[in-house]
């Protein structure tokens, strides 16, 4: 089962930052935090991942707390196209199989 | 930018028929996966595949399912005798080593009548 806890849903105003929280209190030292999103029934789209340092790419920023028990995905200027289900997933950095275990995620609704 | 592709986008079949779902992973990736998502439910892992072998499979992946890499580019999922409950979106994914980022295809919607 998923080892993360996320709010079921969130709203965000268009143009504002969307901050999506995730709790992963049982994370192990070799586990990364990955974020994916799914728009309608399309394939999950990779957003960002990190181990312990904060990360930023062209899509988002990932803030991981010092104890690594929680993280926040930040979409700096949300647009209507960012409306999607966002999944926070923890997984080992090295794995024999690499399977991803999806939870229910957070449904983010970006409103005009 | 390289991407995973899947065909067909939508497959309709009669219960009991065999279906083959096709995927073309990203060209330099070595690990391949199938996931499925029943309407309104979570994305579920089915199987992972490396070096022409199944690395791991879930309890969903029973004897009715099989995977194959018939050539250097395609990766297929076969369902031998489809059931109504096999109706779902099926997603293919690929990654370099398994601990690295997986990239997903757009999915095939399978409808079993």
Question: Can you offer a commentary on this structure?
Answer:
The complex is a heterodimer of chains A (112) and B (113). Chain A is an all-beta fold. Chain A has no helices and 9 strands. Chain A has strands spanning 9-13, 18-23, 31-38, 45-50, 55-56, 61-64, 70-75, 84-92, 106-111. Chain A is globular and about 40 Å long. The mean pLDDT of chain A is 93. With 113 residues, chain B is mostly beta strands. Helix content of chain B is 0%, strand content 50%. Chain B is built from no helices and 11 strands. In chain B, the strands form 2 sheets. In chain B, strands 2, 4, 5, 6, 9, 10 and 11 form a 7-stranded mixed sheet that branches. In chain B, strands 1-3-8-7 form a 4-stranded antiparallel sheet, with no helix packed on it. Chain B is globular and about 35 Å long. Classes of the chains: A mainly beta (112), B mainly beta (113). Chains A and B meet through strand 3, strand 4 and strand 8 of A and strand 4, strand 5, strand 9 and strand 10 of B.
């Amino acid at each position: 089962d998923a080892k993360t806890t996320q709010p079921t849903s969130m709203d965000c105003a268009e143009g504002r930052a969307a901050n999506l929280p995730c709790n992963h209190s049982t994370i192990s030292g070799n586990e990364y935090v990955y974020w994916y999103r799914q728009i309608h029934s399309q394939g999950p789209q990779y957003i960002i991942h990190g181990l312990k340092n904060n990360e930023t790419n062209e899509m988002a920023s990932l803030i991981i707390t010092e104890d690594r028990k929680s993280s926040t995905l930040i979409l700096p200027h949300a647009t209507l196209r960012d409306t999607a289900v966002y999944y926070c997933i923890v997984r080992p950095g090295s794995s024999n199989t690499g399977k991803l275990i999806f939870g229910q995620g957070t449904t983010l609704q970006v409103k005009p | 930018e390289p991407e995973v592709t899947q065909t067909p986008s939508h497959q309709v079949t009669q219960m009991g028929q065999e279906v083959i779902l096709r995927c073309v992973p990203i060209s330099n990736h070595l690990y391949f996966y199938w996931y499925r998502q029943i309407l309104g439910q979570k994305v579920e892992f089915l199987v992972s595949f490396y070096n022409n072998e199944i690395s791991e499979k879930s309890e969903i992946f029973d004897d009715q399912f099989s995977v194959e890499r018939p050539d250097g580019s395609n990766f297929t999922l076969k369902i031998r005798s489809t059931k109504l409950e096999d109706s779902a979106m099926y997603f293919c994914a690929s990654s370099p080593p398994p601990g690295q980022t997986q990239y997903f295809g757009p999915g095939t919607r399978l409808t079993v009548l």
